[in-house]
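Question (not urgent): is this output format expected?
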Amino acid sequence: MKKAVAGLSPSRDKVQTALEGIKKLDIGGLEVSYSTDDHTGLDFANLSIIGSDGKFKR
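Got this back:
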């Protein structure tokens, strides 16, 4: 598997090219994918509420 790398001097174009190289990356049960025509990454969203004490409320 080829790694997506922006290098030591990342630019907007290098980061975009590196992200577009990510295909079905499992990040603990969620799959992240990017392509030249889809920059969504995930088809999932979850709302979290963090209280003033820094703890998750929901």
